[in-house]
Amino acid sequence: MLTFLISGLWHGQQWTFIVWGALHGFYQAVEILTQKSRDSWLCKLKLKRQSLVLQAFQILFTFTLICFSWIFFKADSMGSALHIIRSILDFKDYTSLSAWSFTDGSLGLDAADTVLMGAVLIFFMLLDYLKGKMDLLEKLKAQPRAIRWTLYYALFFAITIFGYYGESSAVDFVYSQF
Questions:
Q1: Residue 65 has pLDDT above 70, yes or no
Q2: Is 11 exposed, middle or buried (0-12, 13-18, 19+ CB in 10 A)?
Q3: Smallest Cα–Cα separation from 80: which of 26, 16, 30, 163?
Q4: Per the domain annotation, does 177 fall within a domain?
Q5: Disulfide engineering: 81 pairs with which of 58, 69, 75, 145, CB 3.0-4.6 Å?
Q6: What number of other Cβ atoms are within 10 A of residue 61's Cβ?
Q7: Residue 101 pLDDT grade (very low, low, confident, very high; cuts 50, 70, 90)
Q8: 26: domain range?
Q9: Are 112 and 120 in contact (CB under 8 A)?
């Protein structure tokens, strides 16, 4: 807990950073303190640690907790953070379909950006799946030099082009203030 509190203080002396660090410490402490009972529940439910359903749940749960903590990291004040949390929990302005509309510009994405984001996500999920089935690096090394270098150049240009994609500045980078 102390390590995470110090990490929060390192980022800034506002309460938002301290809460951000404290949340991470709390998450870690709860994970350690509940390990035996969670193992017991897995045994009772006859779930294996390697099961796809359990791993998907763990990833989604961890992602949700970390995203929640980032509210405090990015908020200007505790009041702003609490306002954001209240707004998230208040669904009065959203219908179930409008909450999932990513092309209205509210997230900074137009239709082309959304398609690109989806394609990239599918590509990485496919890579992750293939990585579990075979050694991709060995497969790549076994390819002729022309194919390998074509892939290297394609990746280089993709990183270069998408690195400048969209409107951003150094101020948008989270650590630009440090």
A1: yes
A2: middle
A3: 16
A4: no
A5: 75
A6: 10
A7: low
A8: 2-89
A9: no
